Structures are given as C-alpha cells and as structure tokens.
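This protein record is not my work; I was only asked to verify it. Would you go through it and say whether the fold makes sense for this chain? Here is the record exactly as it was handed to me.
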Amino acid sequence: MNNDHYQIITGKIADLQVIDTDLALFGKGTFASLPLLGQLALGNTTEAASQVGMASGQQEAADYLNSVQYFRCKLGELTIQGIFCRAFFHNGDQVEVVVEPMEDGSYYAYALRRPIDHRLWLYPWAMKGTKANKTDALKATAPLSLLIFIATFIAISIISDNFYFFISTIIICILVDGLFFLFYYWSYKNMLGGGSKEADKIFATLGYPKPKTVNMEQEYMEMFFNNKSMKEPGFYIDVTTDEFIRKDPPGVKWVAFYREAPPIPDYITVIHTEKNNRKRKK
C-alpha cells in the first residue's frame, strides 16, 4: 500500500449492482462492512441480514437503507466495489476509477471519473484536499469571530467607565471569543468542510500538481459560474449528451464536475481493462 497515492483502473462498467446503505455501518473502518454488502450484492440476503443483526444493532439496522450507496461492478475481469453518496453511473459507461487493491483480489474505489460529462464521484468527505479544507474553515470562521469581538469591544467601551474593569472584560472576551473560534473552526474543518487525507491521495493519483489545495466545490463554481458559458462552443464538455442531461437522484453529495483532467503521472499504476491494452505500472 502506497501512502501517497492509489492506483487507477480504466474501462467500461459491467454487472453493476447498487445497494442503499448507511455510512454509520462502517464506523472507523471503511472496509469492515464490505463483506456484508458483498453478500447482499450477490443475492445472499439471509446471510447478510444475520450479519447486520450481529454487527450493527437495532438502530443501525433501522437506518441501513439511508444515506449512501454501496456499489459493485466489473471493469473487464476485475471486480470494483466501494461507497459513494449515490452510484448513479451505469453499465457501459467508460470510466477511470481510483482504487486500492484488497486482500480478496478485488479493488476498493475511492473515486470514479466519467470523462464524457466530466463527472467525478468521490469517497465520502473527500471533496477537498486538507489544505483547501483548512483554508475554507478559516474563511468561514474568522470573519464571524472577528465581528463578535469588535461588537463586544464597542459595547464594553460604551458602558465601561473603569479602566481596570475595561481591561479585565476585554481579556475575558478575547479568551471566550478565542475558544469560540477554535471550536467553530474545528467543527467546520472536521464535520462540515468535506476535506480529508483520502482526498489528498485521490487528487495526487489523478495528477493534480498540488493535491492538498484542490477544492472540487470551487471547481464546480468556476466551471459553471465564473468561467465559460455553457452556450459557448469551447465549453468544457458537450452539454447535449444523455449523461449530462440525465437528472441526478436525490441525496447527491461528494459528486463534482471537473473542468479539465490533468495528465496522470507516469509513476501511477494504471490498469487498462479494454481489449488490446496492457497493464502499466510505475
């Protein structure tokens, strides 16, 4: 296992199976429930149900069909499985999948890129690199904390006529505001921001020069709102394709549009499953 990047498998999707599930089933170990979901994908519902009851508890079992989707498919002879918010790609789609080999010979998907409409499915909470996530968290929390401090400072200045009371109150306000800022920053970065170390590895694998600073939320805005018009001939993609026109299902998160795909680095292991193509290793 490489600590800096994953591998890539290219080809057409076949034998796609999708199961609704709950991210809570996986806890801290993403791979923990994959055998269970594999049983469901293969139609072994009795065996899977018994495992849910044993491993998850009543509350997790009740929430089992919510939140995210497990998918299993073939690219050539290779089995790919993983968890995305919604696996709304289809059999026959030409894709590039960022994967990690598993002990059973299958591959776990961390991202799936569909070139025809520039769609990019990402691992949960992997929309941003870690540096981009920290930057967004700072932008979101610092102005509010500063505004609260300024308003408090003005209010204390108006009502206070004692210098020592003024200084002591300001010190207390600085400490309280500092704690508020740290809590809000931590909450945004870890629970709302959508950045992760997995994102760093995904974007490094896909060839982004500075993977930790990649922000796919910003990429989406730049693609559709801050750059070219969709009506221009030179727009990034053909917006008349069925893939682009097709309506997204409810519950889509962690799925982005990208403008232009950077070249995949030579040191990345790429497996081409199409006929007359061979495996290329670093």
